[in-house]
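User: I'm curious what two different proteins look like when written out as structure tokens. Can you demonstrate?

Assistant: Sure. I'll show them one after the other, since each token string lines up with its own sequence. Here's the first protein:
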Amino acid sequence: MHPFAGRLAYLLGLVLLATLVRENSGAAVMSVDFGSEWMKVGVVSPGVPMEIALNKESKRKTPTNIAFRDGDRLFGEDAQSIGVRFPANNFAYLTDLLGKTVDNPMVELYKKRFPYYNIVEDPVRKTVVFKNGEDLYSIEELVAQLLQLAKEMAEDSTGQQMTEAVLVVPGFFGQAERSALVQAAKLANLKVLQLINDYTAVALNYGIFRRKEFNETAQYFMFYDMGAYKTTASVISYQLVKDKATREILPVVQVLGVAYDRTLGGLEMQVRLRDHLGKEFNKMGKTKTDVFTNPRAMAKLFKEAGRVKNVLSANTEHYAQIEGLLDEQDFRLLVTRDQFEEMCKDLFERVVAPVDRALAASGLSIELINQVVLFGGNTRVPKIQDVLKAHIKQDLGKNLNSDEAACMGAVYRGADLGTGFKVKKFVVKDAVLFPIQVVFAREGDSGATRLVRRTLFGAMNAYPQKKVITFNKHTDDFEFSVDYAELESVLSKDEISNLGSLNLTRVSLTEVAKKLNANKAENVESKGIKAHFSLDDSGLFSLANVELVLEKTVTEDDESTLQKLGNTISKLFSGDSDDEKVTASEEPTKEEKDGEQAEDKKQEQKPENTTANADTNSTASSDEDGTKNKTDKPKIVTIKETIPSKVEITYVVPLDGDEFKDSQKRIRALDEVDQAKKRRETALNALETYVIDAQVKLDEEEYSSCATQEEIEAIRKSCSEISEWLYEDGSDADAETYEKKLDELKAVANQVYARHWEHRERPEALSALKQMISGAEGFLDKARNFTKEGNPEKDVFTQVEIDTLERVIKETIEWRNTEVAEQKKIAKNQPVRLAVKDLTDKMALLDREVKYLVNKLKLWRPKVKPTPAPKVEKDNAKNSDSKSGEAPESEQVVEEPPKEEQNENNSSEENLDFDEEKPEINPSKTEDGSEEQHTEL
């Protein structure tokens, strides 16, 4: 057996694995469930299943807190600790401030809950900015830095770079909030594959593990979520549907109805409990200072209220206790579950309202719902469960991981959207919460101008989808706006005000008259101006393009090659066939709509009718030569002219341009400070660890025997000096100084460590050399039988080659024996004579000689000797010659060697007692030969 064949196979396997990792390094995808209170990060990478990334404390969820203090930036639990002492420096519950102007009711509620923050208005965008001293922090910047933390967690978990993510958002996020979150992700250098609604992500997670339970009959579920900030109820259907394109039967999860309460959640309960504790402390009269006027005391009360609230979910009573709450006065108070439920009584009355509204939106009754499934941390409150159970009169589903379901559903969606994975398809159809309409002005016959409204995306319509609206009465430049529509039917008055601006965009069209006049002709008819709109899978609305559509009637002789090419290009870029069309006209009455539909139908049929008439009326006459005169047939050609459009966003000015670049610079500066801090901490830890390690090792005989007395004294002296310096002048040194000190200490100690390593590793290297020599000698014994002198029929090797291998083996043995003997004469603390590298060099030389002969044996094939032609009898030859008159051909016959000889010649290696060990490659199951680039989940 070749001694290093197994090791070689192992190394080749590592190289192959490293190559595959490099090829797939860009395939990893992450998801972020960015909640009001907690952040969960999901990851998936090639060869690794979906999982939750752990933070530096090895926890599965991280508080969405970020704090700044004395030039340091802190996240998560570290930020929470700072927030207890310096509340204004710790920023939390940021998601509901995204995309809001300072006059939004949600911002006013935030100020009321957390009075110690100084919130100012961005002078340009009118959005929320935190001011702390001279420092200003926009919402997008703070969220971006938390997303950066999520990105680092994902990269640490997978060991791969993360660039793509699916972000979980509340379903009630409008255009402003969604756009702001996308910009924050862009600041964090993350490409957003999709913004997925929280209930949709949970429903997807619920369905992928139960796909075998679904069939062609729809099954209905309700998912009830109560988080820190809000409560949502959603009605979901699961059904197997045949895909029209692929003809596959795929599971489909569809959102049918959604309702929410934006201010009902655990945070409001925690704030009420905090205020209750504060009032009770004031009643105790331990200090004349009102606890509500002290931000630090309020932060302590808020933290304790959260702890007590969680404990009361499992216990009927618990003590709230805080040391040194205010003016060094301690606080201790018994809180019962009944007291807690009483102070939140009005909140519990609002629990069932989203359930009823979601059912109404879906058009289903509670009897058709298979199960109401809970998720969200605050559904663990017993009172919440009691109220829900009493209302729906059925058991609640508690078989979901309420903390991680949304995050895991989102990462599955990310794997589906990413390029490096192949997942089992699960079709997702979300629903529009806020209807969107187009509003434009039209001048009537009387000269009066009025507004015309046309709904583009109605409530509970499935998305992603595209729509086309046709303006067929405008002949000059005009404007139209895109707004939220008919919100009164889906939202309460308070919820509408929380949504912010109801106006989304204003679109100005130019060159309308110019384009129309340029195409005026008797055979040209305008079909109106078509505007193409899109609502993508992130729920983001956009205007794709605007174009003037004309129909030109031409004959076949009139249509030039250039026109044909233009028509082909026009059709390639037309999206009409895939878009749902909405016709905007002056009068929105039913009669006019019917008339327009009839006109549209007439126009659509016109080309066919014209062609049909042409075929009917065309006559063909024959002349004397039999030729036919053919009447030209009219043909309809569609012409499309792009109309220049300017889109102005009217809800909240996005973070863009110079402001975006300024935010990038500020975040980059903070990153550089953190990197410098991390480098300094790493260098300091490395120096302290090396000093302690060196002192400990010198007390061990294993190491001290490898050092001279002078070296031991020098190392101890250096360690002592560095230790004193670290606790005096060196406590504030920079990273470069620590690294320089470490290099100086290593220069003294590494010589001793190197000798120790040589003495420790030498026996194993000698053993490996011995095995190689033994294997080479065994090979040599067998190889002698494959020379011309030993076996003329199997002359694989020459005698020179055999002699060379024998000489190398002999020289290696003599060298080893001599060097080992000389090394034994040298003390362990003296320079090494027989180094491990010398042994590996000798092994490499011997291995090369053996491999050369092994490869030659593999390539050798026995020579086949031709068999002489059989003798032909003279009589037969004469008869043949007399019959054919030609000389007979001699036929050469090569006899096949005996079967035993064939086997011997074709498998010469098997006749040896040694077999070269070969790496076994077990390819994983592939589909379409592309498994290298896809991971199946």
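Here's a second, unrelated protein for contrast:
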Amino acid sequence: MAQLLRGSYGFNLKHAVLRPALLNVPRLNFSSLNGGTVNTKFKSRSFLHAVPPGGTFNVGVRSYGMIVARVIRGALRLRYLVLGGAITGGVTLNKRYEEWKDGLPDMKWLEDIFPDNQQWKQFSKDLAVVTKSVAETIEIDPRLKQLGEQKVAEWRTWFDSRLDDAIEAAATKENQQLEGSFQSLSELVSQVYGVAKDEIRIKNIVNAKTLNTDDSRRKYETLQQQNEALQTEIMNVQIKYQKEMEKLEKENRDLRQQFLIMKTNRKTGTKKIKKSLIDMYSEVLDELSGYDTTYSTADHLPRVVVVGDQSSGKTSVLESVARARIFPRGSGEMMTRAPVKVTLSEGPYHVAQFRGSDREYDLTKETELAELRREVELRMRASVRGGKTVSNDVISMTVKGPGLQRMVLVDLPGIISTMTVDMAADTKDSIHQMTKHYMSNPNAIILCIQDGSVDAERSNVTDLVSQCDPTGKRTIFVLTKVDLAEELANPDRIRKILAGKLFPMRALGYFAVVTGRGRKDDTIESIKDYEERFFKNSKLFQSGVIMPHQVTSRNLSLAVSDRFWKMVRETIEQQADAFKATRFNLETEWKNNFPRLRESGRDELFEKAKGEILDEVVNLSQTSAKKWEDLLTDKLWEKLSNYVFENIYLPAAQSDSFNTMVDIKLRQWAEQALPAKSVESGWEALQAEFNELIQKAKKLPDHDGIFDNLKACVVDESVKRHTWEDKAIDMLRVIQLNTLEDRSVHDKQEWDQAVKFFESSVKDKLAHTEQTLTEMLGPSTTQKWLRWTSSTEDQSKRSWVKSELDKIIQSDTKHSPVLSYDELTTVRKNLQRSNVEVETDYIRETWYPIYRRHFLKQSLLRAYDCRKAYYLYSQGSENVINCSDIVLFWRIQQVIKVTANALRQQIINREARRLDKEIKAVLDEFSDDEDKKVQLLVGKRVTLAEELIRVRQIQEKLEEFINALNQEK
């Protein structure tokens, strides 16, 4: 019956039963039985053709049974189909899972790297041993140790109770397979807490039976879960215990540190030590050295200048006065390469200290003496720059000790008569100038050192001293190495020297000293003892050649100190008055030139400029998003326009498949050059905006132009150092590639923007091409008449070539960008008729801008036609009008938009802050570089303020010293 229905009426009864909704067929109506027939009305299209509208279809009883059988068989077949589909789908899913699993990387190599259970156990044991040894080594405060033991005892009690509960719970459930797990647990407990009895109790519990039933399996799973929970709890307790121990150890260390600090504070007095008179005087000299390095006008305060020939013993004399071997020494080579100012003062401890340093060197310890000499040598070598042998930079040092005479001495490099090959060419003259410079101070005490072991005729220093102090009112002569002179020289000659009758110079006093036996390891005490023994037993002394007051370094120190303070008292008031007058003159000049400004030195001005520069960096964050995007868009197109025309648009326009060539070129561009150029544009935009902010600041009413050089230098240096983040290029590459994949203009507004963008870009290129042609062809006829100009010979020749090339373009408006050989030949022959000889390359050079102008004009005409062609483009009617140029420039416009947006976010979120850090780093470097400040902060205002500030400081220190000196009287 089903076949009859299917064949006669094109209808499948099974489909009618299974899919009535899809076929729009009503279900069979078996409710109305009339004489063994079934009346059924069908509204499907198949039955409308076979049965008249409103008609009936009579089926017998037998046919009715066959229909029911067919229906049941269809239903069963449906179940088989569903079941088969499920099984087949499961098999397919399982197969795909196996394929996916096989595609995963092989992770078995991790088994060789991670330790097994046995290795973990051994590691736990070793860790316990190390913990024990560390605990025994570290000394812990007894109070903290007692507190820690109490905490540990509480945790042990708590843990034992929890462990007992777990054991009792495990005792009710027997399982043989749990033995291994509880074995590991017992080992962990015994290692961490040392509970051996618990291990025995656990082992007695675990006597297992075989798990055969579901009930025993559930018990086994329950015990396993309890075991895991117990292990987790033990680990948590162990971690908590370890953290508490670390906390206690840290508190112990802090307490010990505080105790040491309190102990040190109790030893160190908090009372501020009053400066000694000589220290105050030394500070005045330091200020004067910084104020006037030439000492030509103001710095006439007394000091003791130690001068002498090289290796004459002047450094040894100074060490004898200071009672410490504080200077480096060598075997005949020049060791003193820079002036060393030594301030001697009395103090309870024999120590030395450099100016500007907090470290004190204990001069009673040989190790610290060696470190002091090494530091002096390092500072001397550091002061010698530019290939020089000697330096004018002063090394200031203070030496304090019991019984030292208070004075300021300056040790100078020894005067030489011959230079060695390792010296600079101007070394001899530099030493002479430096020595004269210090001795020319009218209040300087000259300590003239003469080697007694050499012939007097070999002396260089005596002539130099006699030139600077011809009357000898401030010179003290010292004859060294008298022990050697006694053996070599005639006693009468030594007597003449000490009487001032041998050398053509005068002096206040003459002294003879012995500065050692030439041994480097001799101490000052041994040298002093040797000197006293020598003069006690010397024939010179016994015979009356040398007077008692003329010998020993001690008498020399007393004499020099007495003369030093006498000159200080005589000159200090005069110098104070001179600086007072200088200060008054400078203040008057400042009021006349800068009446409304405060005297700000370079350091203060630099800090003010630093604040203004950092404020400009902060203002970068106030720039609006629209301004950033407009600026970035302009910078991007400025960077990219030439590449777009030369490498993408023009090559694609000359090919047969414009769109294909465009896609290839754009992808290559986005993968290589575009991201880097975009980052470069972003950095230039950031720099341009920052410079614009600085330029705006210059136009403000309160702008101070004295900072302009400094700001420009800081910005330039920061720009040189700053680089864009590397990951920004990769991020831009992804964004740009995705954007360029879109080839469909979305709406009319974007189409109009693209047309406008294309027209403006082509017009800019056309204007540039016209300018090139003007330079090649020279002025036009109108310009020649109006401006009285004429063309050069080359320009005239190119005009002839242009006229011939224009004919080619006019004859073929769709000409290719390359001239053929025949066309080149024709042009040359036509020019020859006009007596114009040119080469083929010359014609090609002229053809290139002419063709480009023609091509760009044609592009503009197509752009005018495409203005209202969006409807045709959206309908796909590209064969009516070709607007591929517009689509290309739309794609470029879109990539510029997304790039500008990404760069703006990068600038605001990252680059502005990184630039801020770079600027701060540059400012910090400049703040420590005095030469940089002097170079960048210039002008009369700065120099006058610096001088005024320095004079005030010197005057204040002078007045402070004078008050202390008067009180001492």
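A detail about the second structure: The mean pLDDT is 75.
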